[in-house]
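TICKET #2291
ISSUE: user wants both folds in one file
ATTACHMENT 1:
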Amino acid sequence: MGLLVTPGAHATTRSPIDLQCTAVTTWACAEAKACERRGDEAKESYSFDLVAMTYQAPHDRGAITEFATDDGGFMIFVLNGGRRYVHKNADAGDPMTSFLYMSSHDMRELRCNARYAPDASAVASDASRGLTGHYYLTGVMETGSELVLRPDGSFAWFMSYGAADQAAEGKWRIDGEAVLLEAGPSAGAEPAFRQLRLRIDHGALLLNGAGKGRYERHP
């Protein structure tokens, strides 16, 4: 069955992960004749899980056995228990209109609402906001260090060990399960590091992935 996005939507597209559809019209299509509208079976519900690759129809359920998309925004998939296709209606608005071909003589017009996976950049942004703040190093003898992660993606870092002081400023970002600090050029001395990776651990940041050196956020 193939699918459906609103016109032009594929230019900024995110693929749906779930479709909830209702049959609004059924059609009987005789060979070499125009399809005729039928009144039965309208309002039946269909759902398509495009992550688990399963479907639920009024009288059966099963697996989506084939799946394909193209650059035009069409989604085509095939169900077990019979070849059934849905294709995008290019003139449709939202909710999307598509057609489910039960057989060569049986077609249903569906109205579908799609659910999409969260945008990755938005998820990363939310995670970043949860890590901003002022951190202090704990668990390392005779060493003092502070780290400030700012909402604009910049950071300031300072460490004092004995008589030696080090500092760095630059940009920070989430990299997998860690915060990556990338130091920029400084007007003074060379930065203490070019990159520093701190593993995220329940709101704290682990120095070099170790359990002893931890940057704990100040309330």
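ATTACHMENT 2:
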Amino acid sequence: MTDSRSWSIDELPAIGEAAICMGAFDGVHRGHLALVAATVTAARERGVRPVALVFDPHPDEVIRPGLRVPRLAPLHENSRRLREAGIEAVPLRFDDELRSLIAEDFLSAMAPAIRVRVLVMTPESAFGRNRAGTPEALRAAGQTAGFDVSVIERLVSDDQEPISSARIRRSLSEGVLDQAANLLGHPPYVEGRVGSGGLFAFGYDPALPAAGTYHADIRGITPSRVKLRIGPDAKVALMDAQPDGFVALDLLSRA
């Protein structure tokens, strides 16, 4: 399975019985990892495989045509982080057809490739047509369809505010990298191809920090520390080392 494409619901890989969680998982932050850990535990207890359904494109872009959601990481990087957390990442194409399914039909449409035995959710989460697939509704459906629903509380930060990708994007837009890193549980990330003058060309719409100069580490080379300049026009350039080709960066702090 490739990490750079999403699958339609009728072409999913053959996994079998599974414990699943679902979402955009943008950035794979600490809140996501709590959901993943609960899913892995539920799978282990039932002797099934843990699966994260990763919606792509971002559901908000389908629900509100014309909207572009800046991403904390591209699909392949989010999938990599999910795998590192011990769960199988299955990118699922989110489109109008998927959106139109009621929650019960959504789950049954994945069979026989994925047969849901437990669905792990947070109390406020919902999916399916009109977001009618709440934990309460699905508990009732699961009694006849043969699956359980496990609900875990949404992870909050020290200020008791929920951790979310939207909140992390706001922290980045304000240039508060330490807060973004704390909520993520890892440094903010960007990747792209570096060309003339160190300018970046992105293959996705990145969630960038506020204009300024930042310290960053390039993955996979030594020495790795560089400075990154983000202009008020959102143009991004490396200021010192200028490797050719693809570059993956962990953003560390303001310079």
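RESOLUTION: both attachments delivered.
EXTRA DETAIL ON ATTACHMENT 2: The CA atoms of residues 15 and 47 lie 13 Å apart.
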